[in-house]
Design brief:
The structure holds 3 protein chains of 3 kinds. Chain A is mainly α. Chain A contains 16 helices and 2 strands. In chain A, 44% of the residues are buried. Chain B is 36% helix and 24% strand. By secondary structure, chain B is of the alpha/beta class. Chain C has 4 domains: 30 residues; 91 residues, no CATH class; 99 residues, Elongation Factor Tu (Ef-tu), domain 3; 218 residues, MetI-like (MetI-like fold). Chain C has a 7-stranded antiparallel sheet with strand order 3-9-6-7-8-5-4, sandwiched between helices. In chain C, strands 2-1-10 form a 3-stranded antiparallel sheet. In chain C, a hairpin with a 5-residue loop joins strand 4 and strand 5. Chain C contains 20 helices and 10 strands. The chains are: A mainly alpha, B alpha/beta, C alpha+beta. Chains A and C meet through helix 6, helix 8, helix 9, helix 10 and helix 11 of A and helix 1, helix 12, helix 13, helix 14 and helix 15 of C.
Chain lengths: 471, 276, 526
């Protein structure tokens, strides 16, 4: 009997019960309100529907809480009880093995396909089903009790002057607030998960060794000196900014100061396409076109230098994936981030400033260089900061085109690795969460998060200050 | 305490309002020592005045004198402005509408409001009128609602112009028609008081004349408070006039008296056009 | 310039100075223009490379085989139920291979040749046929024509991408005489003049002459390899067909630009391919399998169906979570939130979340959903949740802008007839802001659809051969599939990857088109 109860499809059952209890409560509440309406002499404070919502609210909320609690805790509770009852022969199993054994028990219980398995397994599965039956019965009973109690209690509060609408709307406002609170929860989730795993990692490797060590070999030798990764990230972001800053800035100047409105109307959206292309596409482009081209050029450069007798051996590394390839393509990707925001801030510079410069006899370029750009400088700097932050956090281009060797090399044609590349390669392996390899990815993620956060906060502050200045 | 506000209008007599009378009866709204603060600054200084039922009271005064702010106290629209605080008592049926347990939503269904610029909802003409009755549950069924819509539009003098296109968007009407639509929308929730915040300032003279006529007709059923910039308009439509200046109520009296024989120097200066 | 010196024309020195300033002005404008040109040029190069690669993958070569569905082979005793037939890959494959061996008897001679001819079609390519027969058992015993995609290397060869070759018309061959070791001596007056010239060109610039270039001579279904070529005669080693064919019509010579050891396809395979082509059994067909097949380790069979479905499921989860939560949060912040510390803190959080690198969300997903809560790896549910957390700040920011654009007079009007604030917002403000909210949400979803990095961290990179049926199934998504395919070494994956990119971009274009449409149709200016 208990075992059959253990087979109940609790997910669907709970959802159905929530729907049934909710609508039943709504109609009961509305019926009660309509009765009140007939017997009362004046107008009611709230419309009958709101009384219905009120009753439904106080019925559904506890039921949902129970259902959520069941979804989160039930399995764990059952497993820990089952583990306690297991014969002593299971003591030698490691936690991971035990978990996978219990997982197979759960699977078997789900399909009721225990025939053919050994007797111990069958017995454990049956016991598991019994436990689950108890759990399900208790949950359903509690749920029914709470729902009935909710309906009974909230029904009694209905009266002609009861402000059901106000209560319901307060409840809705709470829901709205909780939705906005998801932003805080997400940030907190990021900070906590990064910190928690990083702290575990820093128990194995000291913070100082991690930040200043020059040897990174996480996959094989458990060497966790992240300096080469920081260097690679910096180098590639630098190359990207060397591409994006002048092109983005000059594009913005051209669009806002020189281009006709019609040309601007065409060019601006096309430039913004660059920001809408998925980064994996850029990665493919870097891998397919840019990296081989750079390699060929580097090889050609090496050969000509040797032929000219300037060197006896190749100067450039000329590797198939290179920092230069990744940096160049990333630069292209980042252009619209620079140009759009710069364009906005340049447009925000008051026309009166330009007029003043023209009135002094300045040419257009002198006006732009000496008046407009200096006036817009804080905004432009913010745009560049946001672009840098974007370049540092960019993943797919570097994963596909930058390489995996952690080294410190000034040669842009050698392959360098970055923080994000290492996070991906560490996290895509089949290692568990207790392995320092996995944990080191979180330490890297923490560094990445902090650095980009600083860039973003500074940039947003600058933009805000700038806006206040001209508005 | 909160009960009276909810119950004074019986549900059954949806559209049968008390018969029209010409004489101003007991005050519909009685304001005592009203002060309004925006943050720390006091915008209205200790104003006390009463609004008689079935009469039009005009609030006049130069820009920024606080007449609109005062008007918005009467249906607690100032609640929607952050850091705005109202002190003093505003009594309606002996109950202070500023009490914490008065529901402003119910108050506003009794005290309707028409704004400076016509602001019909971007919906059909029908839905514009029907929205209020719907949320307040004033109609039992479709036919009832149709009747309310027709009655409100008739009272606002708009029925003949729009009866064939009730499904057309309200925003497609002319400015004057839009404003009458807004008046009809206010009437549809069966208010006792109608507040009008410079209802003609965005309209041309012909539309203005039409609205003024309408106000005169409505006077027989409602307590009307109108804020206006135009002294001529105040003289034309109102029975009582209050002159505001710098947040103070300078003078209050019958319109004829205020315009012909003001007691205060400042009133006289204003109506003779010496400032403002 | 006017002749008379006036106030606006000044001394020579200052004129020179002015000229310099004007030149600087022109240069500056030119810098701006070139920046635009470079940016747009980069976009154009990207579009053209990916577009042209994708074009070549839009069609492929299929070979048709006439086979008799011998029940003993495809539905042997004890395995004749439809589900057995649909899984009987070996049986169907043997039919196809035997057909090839019958067509080219010389391939049966040695193991190596048998393997080379078997390479023409991948075992799994017969699966659709097996399913067809399983569904229509009446076909058993009849003779049907089966089509299967050609091996990817040969497909590339026929498209002229893989192995480079130079085609030269040879003159008429007058006589073919047997030579030692089963070879032949072919001769015709001046038949190989053109070929010799071509060979000279081909050999120029080659570094090592040690390895001789292969020269193939084809006539009809017959192909042979030429050596010891002179103007009138050459030594021919027959690869397939009959020697008699060469005298019947003017043959074509092919100089294969790389040595046999350097290529993935042998001379014999080229010869058979040409023969099949001559028989009309190879056709170039549109590659619908890109949309209807799931991932495969064989490029000619691989398709994006499972990734497309995975993407849709993931987006479904993202939309169901990010859109309501984001919109309601925006409503709260724009319409209800008091101005206080908590609100300010929420706003700071949202602005920062919108700029957090996407990979950090992947770490959050791995730590929170997979490690802590214990959700399944590689599931669209987890991917969708991670992307939802990433998308919802974008939805909030866009929705707030849309709500802000609804004029306050609408709110005042609703409040004045006694609507509560909640009613005002949900009856009037939100419906009016809906087009703006929706476009913002779609743009956020488009960004999520192209996102790769966070999904790699939650294990969506695994090879998935089946179409996922629910958000809990193992699955991959389009951008991750692009990443996986671009990692594959074989040459044939490059155009396939590009084609998959085009499919992904088509989805993004669709979403952006929808945004433009919504804006045109519904967005109102107040």
């Amino acid at each position: 009997m208990l075992q059959q109860l253990g087979q109940l499809p609790m997910g669907w059952l709970l959802i159905a019960l929530i729907a049934v209890f909710g609508s039943a409560a709504f109609f009961l509440g509305r019926m009660r309100a309509e009765q009140l309406l007939e017997t009362s002499t004046g107008r009611m404070h709230s419309r009958p529907n709101y009384h219905g919502y009120y009753v439904a609210m106080f019925t559904v909320v506890p039921v949902v809480l129970i259902a959520v609690a069941y979804a989160i805790f039930a399995e764990d509770l059952m497993r820990s009880q089952l583990t306690r009852e297991l014969p002593s022969s299971f003591d030698r199993l490691s936690p991971a093995e035990l978990q996978s054994y219990l997982e197979s028990v759960r699977m078997a219980a789900g399909t009721a396909a225990t025939s053919g398995a050994d007797r111990v397994f069958q017995a454990i599965t049956n016991r598991y089903l019994e436990l689950r039956g108890v759990m399900n019965t208790a949950t359903l009973a509690l749920l029914g009790l709470l729902a009935a109690g909710g309906i009974f209690w909230s029904q009694r509060r209905l009266s002609q002057n009861f402000r059901a609408r106000a209560v319901v709307e307060n409840g809705m406002e709470l829901v709205l607030f909780l939705c906005a609170g998801v932003a805080i929860a997400t940030t907190a989730g990021i900070v906590v998960s990064l910190l928690y795993e990083s702290l575990q990692f820093f128990q194995v490797v000291s913070v100082w060794d991690f930040l200043t060590g020059t040897r990174w070999n996480a996959q094989t030798n458990a060497e966790f000196g992240a300096l080469p990764l920081f260097f690679g990230t910096f180098m590639i972001a630098l190359i990207a900014m060397l591409v994006a800053a002048p092109i983005g800035l000059f594009s913005a100047i051209f669009l806002s100061e020189y281009a006709s409105p019609k040309a601007r109307g065409w060019i601006k959206p096309i430039l913004e396409i660059l920001a809408g292309i998925p980064t994996v596409v850029y990665g493919f482009f870097a891998l397919l076109v840019v990296a081989p081209a750079i390699r060929q050029m580097a090889v050609w450069f090496n050969e000509s230098v040797i032929q000219m007798g300037l060197a006896s051996e190749p100067i450039l590394a000329a590797q198939p994936t290179s920092a230069l390839a990744a940096g160049l393509v990333m630069g292209i990707m980042v252009i619209p981030f620079v140009s759009s925001l710069s364009d906005d801030v340049i447009n925000a510079v008051p026309q009166t400033l330009r007029d003043a410069a023209y009135a002094l006899g300045a040419t257009k370029s002198e006006t732009v260089k000496q008046v407009v750009v200096p006036a817009a400088l804080p905004g432009i700097i913010a745009a560049l900061l946001l672009a840098v932050s974007r370049a540092i956090g960019e993943t797919m281009i570097v994963v596909m085109a930058a390489g995996k060797s952690a080294r410190i090399s000034m040669d842009p044609t050698s392959d360098l690795t970055t923080i994000t590349v290492q996070i991906v390669s560490l996290m895509t392996g089949e290692t568990g969460f207790d392995d320092p390899k996995t944990l080191s990815a979180f330490a890297l993620g923490l560094v990445l998060f902090i650095v980009t956060l600083i860039f973003n906060i500074v940039a947003l502050r600058v933009v805000k200050k700038y806006r206040e200045k001209y508005e | 305490m909160d009960t009276t506000l909810g119950m004074s209008t019986a549900v059954d007599d949806n559209l049968t309002l008390p018969p029209a009378t010409d004489t101003a009866a007991a005050p519909r709204i009685d304001c005592r020592n009203i002060k309004v603060f925006y943050g720390e600054t006091e915008a209205i200084h200790d104003v006390s005045m009463a609004f008689p039922d079935r009469a039009v009271t005009a609030l006049i005064g130069p820009s920024g004198c606080g007449k609109s702010t005062f008007l918005r106290c009467l249906n607690r629209m100032n609640d929607t402005i952050e850091n705005c605080r109202v002190e003093g008592e505003i009594l309606m049926d002996g109950e202070n509408i500023n009490d914490a347990d008065v529901d402003p939503v119910l108050l506003r269904s009794r005290v309707g409001m028409v704004f400076q610029k016509p602001n019909p909802f971007p919906k059909s003409i029908y839905d514009n009128i029907a929205y209020g009755p719907r949320i307040h549950g004033l109609a039992n069924g479709r036919e009832d609602l149709d009747a309310i819509v027709e009655k409100s539009l008739r009272r606002a003098g708009l029925w003949d112009e729009v009866k064939d296109r009730l499904a057309a968007p309200g925003t497609g009407l002319s400015g004057g028609q839009q404003q009458r639509l807004c008046i009809a929308r206010a009437i549809a929730v069966q208010p006792e008081v109608i507040l009008m915040d410079e209802p003609c300032s965005a309209l041309d003279p012909i539309a203005t004349a039409r609205i003024e006529e309408l106000i005169d007709e409505l006077r027989n059923r409602y307590c009307i408070v109108i804020v206006t910039h135009s002294m001529q308009q105040a003289a034309r439509v109102s029975q009582r006039t209050a002159f505001f200046h710098l947040g103070n109520l300078v003078e209050l009296g019958d319109t004829s008296q205020i315009f012909t024989n003001p007691r205060e120097k400042r009133t006289e200066d204003y109506i003779t056009g010496r400032f403002g | 310039m006017s002749k008379k010196p006036g106030a606006l024309t000044t001394s020579a020195a200052s004129a020179k100075h002015l000229k310099r300033r004007r030149a600087a002005d022109g240069r500056f404008r030119y810098y701006g223009l070139s920046a635009i040109v470079v940016a747009l040029g980069a976009l154009a190069v990207l579009a053209v490379t990916i577009g042209s690669q994708a074009m070549s993958a839009a069609s492929y070569h299929v070979v048709s085989y006439e086979v008799t569905l011998d029940p003993a082979v495809i539905a042997p005793e004890g395995a004749s139920r439809p589900e057995d037939i649909s899984r009987n890959v070996d049986g169907f494959y043997s039919l196809v291979r035997d057909n090839l061996l019958n067509t080219f008897p010389e391939a049966g001679a040695d193991r190596n040749s048998r393997r080379e001819v078997s390479d023409f079609v991948t075992r799994l390519a017969v699966l659709p046929t097996a399913r067809l027969v399983a569904g229509n058992p009446e076909l058993i015993g009849s003779r049907i024509s089966v089509t299967a995609p050609l091996n990817d290397d040969l497909d590339l060869y026929l498209k002229g991408i893989g192995v480079r070759e130079r085609k030269i018309r040879a003159g008429a061959i007058s006589s073919v005489e047997p030579a030692p070791e089963g070879a032949f001596q072919v001769s015709g007056a001046g038949a190989f003049n053109g070929l010799l010239a071509g060979l000279t060109v081909a050999n120029e610039g080659r570094k090592d002459d040690a390895v001789q270039l292969d020269v193939l001579l084809t006539s009809g279904v017959s192909t042979g390899r030429l050596t010891e070529i002179s103007a009138d005669t050459a030594h021919l080693e027959l690869l397939t067909g009959r020697v008699a064919d060469f005298t019947e019509s003017a043959p074509t010579a092919r100089i294969i630009q790389s040595a046999e050891s350097e290529r993935t396809i042998s001379n014999k395979q080229i010869a058979w391919t040409l023969a099949l082509q001559d028989m009309g059994r190879i056709k170039r067909a549109p590659r619908w399998t890109l949309l209807t097949n799931s991932d495969s380790t064989y490029p000619e069979l691989a398709g994006g169906l499972s990734a497309i479905v995975g993407s849709l499921l993931t987006m479904l989860v993202t939309a169901l979570v990010a859109m309501p939560v984001g919109i309601l949060a925006a409503v709260y912040l724009e319409e209800f939130a008091p101005r206080n510390r908590v609100t300010e803190f929420i706003e700071v959080n949202i602005n920062n979340l919108a700029a957090v690198p996407s990979i950090v969300f992947g770490l959050l997903g791995a730590a929170l959903f997979i490690n802590f809560i214990g959700m399944p790896r590689s599931a669209p549910l987890v991917g969708g949740l991670v992307l939802a957390l990433m998308t919802f700040p974008v939805v909030i920011i866009a929705s707030r802008a849309a709500l802000k654009s609804v004029p306050p007079s609408v709110r005042a009007g609703a409040l004045a007839v006694g609507a509560s604030q909640m009613q005002t917002v949900f009856h009037h403000v939100v419906p009016l802001a809906a087009p703006g909210i929706l476009t913002g949400a779609i743009l956020g979803m488009a960004r999520a659809l192209g996102e790769t990095a966070p999904l790699l961290l939650i294990g969506m990179v695994a090879f998935v051969g089946d179409v996922p049926k629910s958000p809990m199934d193992e699955s991959t998504v389009m951008p991750v599939l692009i990443f996986s395919w671009s990692n594959n070494a074989e040459r044939a994956w490059e155009p396939l990857t590009a084609a998959m990119i085009v499919i992904l971009l088509a989805f993004l274009l669709l979403m952006n088109g929808l945004v433009v449409f919504l804006r045109r149709k519904y967005e109102r200016r107040w």
